[in-house]
Amino acid sequence: MALKARAKETLAAYLFLSPNLIGFIIFTFLPVFVSLFLSFFKYDILNPPTFIGVKNFVDLLGFHSEAGKTVANDPKFWQYLWNTVFLMFSIPLCMMASLGLAIALNRKIKGESVFRTLFFLPSICPGVAIAILWLWILNPEFGMLNNMIYWIGKLLGFDLPGPLWLNSLGWSKPSLMLMNLWIGVGGFNMILYLAALQGIPRDFYEAAEIDGANGWQKFWAITWPQISPTTFFIFIMSIIGGFQGGFMQAYIMTGGGPGGATTTIEYYIFNNLYTWQNAGYAAAIAWFLFLVIFVVSIINWRFGGKLVHY
Amino acid sequence: MEIDKSLDRAKHRSAAQAKERTLRISAYVVLIIGALSMIMPFLWMVTTSLKTLNAIFVQPKNWIQMFVPTMLVWQNYVDAWTKVPFGQFYLNSIIVGMAVTVGQVFTSSLAAYAFARLTFPGRDKLFFAYLATMMIPGSVTMIPVYVLMRVFRWVDTYQALIIPAIFSAYGTFMLRQFFMTLPKDLEDAAKIDGCGFFRIYMTIILPLSKPALATLTVFTFMGNWGSFMWPLLVTNTMTMRTLPIGLESFKTQYSTDWHLLMAGSVMVMLPIVIIFIFTQRYFVESIKLTGVKG
Questions:
Q1: Structural domain span for residue A27
Q2: Most buried one in A206, B121, B158, B174, CB count within 10 A?
Q3: Rounded to two decimals, what is the model's pTM?
Q4: In terms of CA atoms, which chain A residue is nearest residue B236?
Q5: CATH no., domain B76-290
Q6: What is the Cα–Cα distance from B50 to B70, expressed in whole angstroms?
Q7: ipTM confidence score
Q8: Average pLDDT in the B189-215 region?
Q9: How far apart are CA B25 and CA A248, in angstroms?
């Protein structure tokens, strides 16, 4: 009887699961392995794939000697990897700003929900519309940003020329970082910080006040350690997101330029797959990206508990 | 002696109050600066969308000229709407968005019920597999699925836009977390009355989970509305494009008509902004539930 009931429950469970599970297997689970499989092939989607062993990975990650110098087989890939990492340097700044806003919001402010809505807005808007808007904001001649820089210069009494932003080799990455800061500062990270701040028991602060701690001391002794799990979580998630980022900006705003300065790994994968119909190479890059993210996640699991103070 | 002490205390208190006030004021300053920098780009977008082409390429002399248009050229919106088939893009986005949302909420809630409430062999391993795939970069799975769409000849069809987007590990995870928090007593009572699993799911679990289901609905719909890379891969013709891809092709064709581009961007953003304003509490809710971004 009990056995029959259990069999019935198992059957029911798999019936409940099946619509999702079948799709999950076809569109997520199997493709992970098909991707790995494809990375050992030359495949242009039209013709049948040809097995080429680890050639894609050698082309991607290997080096060869050229006129006595060691040269990467695919120097572009390393440039794009560096671009991707460079764009992530804005993460700490973005997190600090999120925390600042969350701390300000946490002070029983009037109109809290209005502020929260405003801060959240950029992160929920369709990315394409935001990218086009920022393309216009960053327009060197008539954009909002350079207009404002010009006025500030006039206010200070001299001619302040704004940079060429996306058209300039040096400023193109900072431009995108500024835009990402604007998008990300008030979104999920701020809400996560706000929730963490609200979770700190009031009496911690009261005890510190009795001991005569000032605001700064209270922040470093109580707030910062108490929110460190959140900080760590946001940091790891931002890194994982950062490695996969930059596609939309490159596709819509810069075309990856100037001189490949804004091409990220994700955009390189897309171009290999779609523009150059080189699915095997795209799969190899994607798997490399997967391994990088896997390592970051391992660090998260291994050290996440140790680095943070509960 | 006593009086001195209480005077001291009062002084102390007023000092603390003054300090508290400074902190509050600085909090407001931070928030107002933040709010201004958030709102200015949007304001500028709307202003640009209401200017004539000539007025855009004039350096504004002051703040007022920059953010307040001297005339309201609503015709820009009509022009943008008719230059490319925005109506068709809207229709496609709505069809795809609704189908994906319904599909995802339906399949995710069924699977989540099994994971949260039923015991069966392989449950924990399977759930772990679901969780683990959330860590895999989208591009890894996207490549074979794109190849599959080409092989199936699904490029430029609604199936290609809808079906691969339905099956979500995230949705299953989020609903499972919520179902776990529901009390079991009602179900136990229903079981004693001879209720089957499907009836429990329909009459107890789903009605109790309205907030979580609403959260997933809003999340999925809004996420899909902004979805870019996948629709770009699997659509080639104007008639199948969703709004983001349509807006992008509009941008390529009219790359210097900033007044029209801004009008187009406003049209793409507006529905999402309106939905968000009415449903924002669900966003906060989902974050509390999973601690994960959508």
A1: 1-36
A2: B174
A3: 0.89
A4: A274
A5: 1.10.3720.10
A6: 9
A7: 0.87
A8: 87
A9: 39
